[in-house]
Amino acid sequence: MNRAFGLIAAVLSVVLPVSSGHAQSGIEKLYILNCGEGVAGDISRWSPGVNEGKSMDFVDNCYLIKHAQGWFLWDTGIPDAVAAMPNGLAPADPKAIFWHRPKTLAAQLDQLGIKPSDIKAMAVSHTHPDHIGNVEMFPMTMLYVQKAEYDWPGANNEPRFKPGHPVTTLEGDRDVFGDGSLTILSTPGHTPGHQSLLVKLPKTGAIVLSGDAVHFKSNWDNRRVPAINSSKEQTLASMQKISETLTKEKAQLWINHDKEQRDSLKMSPEFYD
Ligand SMILES: [Zn+2]
Question: CA-to-CA distance for 48 and 167, rounded, in angstroms?
Answer without folding.
Answer: 35
